[in-house]
Each structure stands twice: as C-alpha cells, then as structure tokens.
Write a structure and sequence with these properties.
binds 2-(butylsulfanyl)adenosine, OB fold (Dihydrolipoamide Acetyltransferase, E2P), disordered N terminus, D-amino Acid Aminotransferase, Chain A, domain 1, alpha+beta, Helix Hairpins, five-stranded mixed β-sheet
Length: 686
Amino acid sequence: MNADHGWPVSESVADQVRRLREQLSDWSYRYYVLDEPAVPDAEYDRIFRALQSIEEQHPELVSADSPTQRVGDRLLDGFSEVTHEVPMLSLDNAFSDEELVAFDRRISERLGIQDTVIYVAEPKLDGLAVSILYKDGQLVRAATRGDGASGEDITANIRTLRSVPLGLRGQAPALLEVRGEVVMPHDGFEALNERQRQAGQKPFANPRNAAAGSLRQLDSGITAQRPLEFYAYSIARLEGQAMPATHLASLQLLRDLGLRVNSLVCRCHGVDELLAFYQRVQQQRPTLGYDIDGVVYKVDDLALQQKLGFVSRAPRWAIAHKFPAQEELTILRDVEWQVGRTGALTPVARLEPVFVGGVTVSNATLHNADEIERLDLHIGDTVVVLRAGDVIPKVSAVLADRRPESARAITIPVACPVCGSEVFRAEGEAVTRCTGGLICAAQQKEAVRHFASRRAMDIEGLGERLVDVLVDEKLIANVADLYRLSIEQVASLERMGEKSAANLIEAIQRSKQVALPRFLFALGIREVGEATALALANHFGSLQAIMAADDQAFVQVADVGPVVASHLQHFFAEPHNQQVISRLLEAGVTPSESEPQKPETLPLHGQTWVLTGTLEQLTRDQAKAALQQLGAKVAGSVSAKTSMVIAGEAAGSKLDKAQALGIAVEDETYLIKVLTEHGVYPGSAE
Ligand code: IVH
C-alpha cells in the first residue's frame, strides 16, 4: 500500500497510527458513552496531536474514520436532500397525570392485556432530531428531521461531534440507522454566547436555537467549534444482525456499538413508576446541564409496538409527558435597584405575578443597565419571563408591539438608593457602583472586614463573625466607629469575655499607627490593591496630597491607568467618604507620611524584575509592591531588559527563557533577603 504513493511507510508506522486511533476512540467511548473519563483532556489532546503529526508526514495513512478527520476542508454551497426510508415521526403529548393514565389504559385495551404494561422512560431532550447512517460500521450519512419524510444532508457537520463515533465498535452490523437528538449543553451555550457578544454578534436566545444554527452551517469548521452533543434514542433500521426484542435491549446494543445513550433511561412497570420517573427527572432537571422539556414513555416490547402501530404522524406506543411551561408572559410594573455588598447596583424587575415553571414569580433579575438597553425594556412592557428550574427567574425578551402608550423609559439612578452617595460606572464596565464604600449600609460589613484584615489595618481578633455582630447590634456602622468602641460595649456581646474585649480594643488602638500604603489599601477603593496603594503613597507622600489629587494627577503614578484613576477620584470626591476619613483621623489614626521619594535615589531604580512560579512566604502582589517600593519595575515576561528573575516553585517557561538569555536567576530566599535588608519585607514589622 505504501509503494503506490512512494512513501517509505514501515509497518510500525501504520501500526502506530492504528494504535493511536484505537486509543483515542476508546477514550471518547469511555468519556461519552460510559461517562467515565479515562484521561485528562490534555492527554487526549497530546495523543491527538501526535496522530495528526504522523498523518501529516504519511498522508496515505489518513482514513475517513480517523479522529483527525472530523472537519473536512470542503465548504458546501447548500445542503442536499435526504429521503428518510423510515419516516421520522413526532410524539403525542400528555400535559397531566390524567392524560397519562388514559394513554396507559388505551394501550392495555388495544393489546387486550390485564397485566401492567412495561415501558421505557427517557428524558425528552430539547434539541434537534437527527438520523445517522452507518454502513459496515462506518458513518456514511447524517440528516436532519426536516418534515419527517425528507431532511437535509448534514453529514459533514455531524462528523464534527466528538460524541458521534465515525466508526462503530466491535461487531458492526451491515447497516444501522440510528435516531437521536443533538443538544447544546448549558455551559457550552453560555460560553458560546459570551464569544458571540465579544465578537459583536447577536447571542442565541436558547440552547436549542444555538444547536439548530450550529448544525445548519455550510462550513463544518464552524460547527466543530460549537459545543454540540448527541444522544441516541432509537434504531430506525438494522441489517445483518437480528433486531433485539425490546426497546431497552436496542438502546443497550447502541451503547455497545459506541453510541451515547442518555444515562437517565429506565424501565418502568405501569403508570405509577412512570409518574415517579417524571417527578424524579423534573427534580434533576436544573442540574442536568442540558435542556429537556419533558419525558418520553415508550412501550418496551418491540413486537407490541408493532401491533400498536401509528396514528397519522405519531406512534400509538409512545407519548411525551411535558413539564410545565418555563416561559410566560407578564407585565413589568417597575424596576428597583439593589446594592450588593461590593457596591454593584443590580436592577430588579417587579412583575405582575405569574405562574411559571411551577412557582409564582413576581421579581426577576435584569443583571445590569446594558441588559435593560439590550432588551429595550420600558416600564409597562409585556415581557417574557423565563424560569429554568432553580435558576433565578429572568426577563428574556420584550414584546415591543404590545407596548402601551403610557410606557416609561427606565432611568439609571444617579445616587445610591441605599446611602445617597454618587454612583459611577467606569469606562468599559457593565456595572454601575455606589461610590460611598465607607458608609453605604449595603457595603458596611464588607468594608469593615476588608479594613480590619491582616494585609490592611491588621486588627487582630476582628474576624468575620464579630464584624457581623457589631454591625447587626448597631455598635458600628462604618470603619470610623471602630475607634469609639469601648471594652464594656464589646464585652456585653454574646460569647465575648472581658479579656477578649480588652484585647480587641487594644488591637484597634494599636492599628492607629499605620503605614500610608496599608491605610490606602484598607479604604477598599475599587481596584486599588496593595501594589497600587504603595505606588500612590510613594508618589504623593501623604494622604492629604492624595485626597487633593485629580484624575490627571493620578494617572501620573506608575501602575495607575485611567480606570483606576477615575475610581480614586470618585472615591475621594464623595463627601460621605471624606467624612469617614476625617473621623478616622480625628480618632487618632495616623497614616505615616514620608517625603515623596525621588525615583533615582531608590536602591533598585532602573532595574526590571520578573517573578515566576509559586512563592511560599508572600503573595505575588506583596512581592511586586515591595520591589516597586525599592524602585524596581516588575514585568510579566522575560526579555533582554530583565535584570533579575525570581523563580518560585514549579517555575516554567519564564525560567527557561531567562536561562537561555543568560539572565540572573535567584530564589525566594534571596528575594526575602533583599526585601528585609531594605526594610520592605511585608512579613517584618513596618
Ligand atoms: S422518540 C417515533 N425519544 O421529540 C418516536 N424523541 O416530538 C419519535 N425527542 O422529533 C422520537 N427526546 O426530536 C424520542 N428520548 C426521546 C426524545 C425524542 C427528544 C424529540 C425528537 C422528536 C420529538 C418528537
């Protein structure tokens, strides 16, 4: 076989290719069919690339069933028509227990049997029905349902789905036509929509539409990037081997041949077991990870199915038992803005109560102002409310043609609805935030916790629980109140002794002597971490100078871009925050002042350091801040300009590059030595 192509292919290369393919298809089988992943994705990818590279060198070894051949290079100009030899039917629906009981009775009567009927119950997957044809074990054609009599040839697209085997496992029949559903799982759907939004394209309304759009691509390269999965649910044709006697056995056969069958499938005796299945699946529905809109019951015995036959376009031997609607229409009465613990303002829709997904819904999240704009939402609008299982109800669409004349536009508040401080939305951010971080009641616990934390004011003994109690008992409302607490007040709290109260007050008093960078960090200004706080302190030298600065002055600081500058400016401009800072200073909190440092005089001035790997004794941010305090630049990648690389545990490519460029490399111990020598090691007293 090699001689024809003139390629010197040794037997061992052909063997190797076969072995890698078998390995990959076995892993896919374990992953999709058995649901027992055998190796991490990275290992699959590694072997896949190994196979790809051998095939590139030996094109004569490439075969259509190789896992590397899922995406072809051909672009279709349209889909050709496929006639379904066995029509693809639809199902009758039952919406209540009574309708189901009637279905079961009809079956017994038609068959003239007294015993309970045996059924197979399955989830009703909410995707697209497809039919896939295998000849001699090889996937040869795949088609959509279309009108049931004929559909479209989507072979190239179906081949890109990793849960669809290109070749069957084991003893393959001469011909197999398998029917099943293609779905898009929720996590993949969310990720796809995020990509769509980032590319400036319209997001898909739901996973079903996304799956449909993905299967109707003329370029299978696009389908390959879409997270689609296939579940087989029946055999339409089987040749060269006997058809099993029951539906359950036919699903088992499909599984043995390497096709994925849904794991919830279950044999049920009579109506009671069917109803129990319905309840169970309905409960599991929110955590399944893909959409289902009900369950399907099928008579298990295939001979009985044949006896029962069909009415018009649906079989008599099966029925879909639908779940209650998850989408309903209602009226938007108002929009209220809630403030989260980090100051984010979230719009909440107040709705005319409506029964949806099994509960009455009167509130729904609107996420943020962009979402309101995207939906073009007005108060008074008729809206679609979606409630998927446990998920928080959301407004998914607006029926603009039903907008009444009295409809009102929704305005974004200019002041925080909780504390009245100014609200601010940074450029490029979707979220509007309250700037009154130090006084806003919605944010008070979070603000106090951060203020007291070890890397901020380091108030020992003021843990999360105690912050909750102090705020709940109204002993403090903001961080300045901490300095007015008395031992008696604290000791009167539950589970607080005299001794621990005294210790806490002492720790609070001790915190008054604080380095300016720590104090700035403790204020909890958005996006001002330890490194930025340090850079600000070095640049301005005093709190007064910082409070007097504006956007223009802030952007002069290394490490401060326009967004951080605007956060700083808004924070210090907010009178409520100014008040709290004044009260802190009045109480005796004294952030240390220092002359703004001349950069040239700093010991590491002009040097660029790179940190790589994991540091054990201090965080990256702390190390970066301390190095910057000594005048070094801290860069993210190694180049010829790098002065020093500090390699922590498991340092990777940056270390390799430093060695290749002959740049000095030291470990964490060395870093700590340098920082300690210059008195900036965060672990030592400041
Ligand atoms: S059996 C003749 N089983 O429901 C039997 N269908 O309304 C027809 N569906 O077009 C199909 N999950 O797309 C069957 N476990 C399941 C199913 C299922 C979803 C869809 C399928 C079909 C539609 C019928």
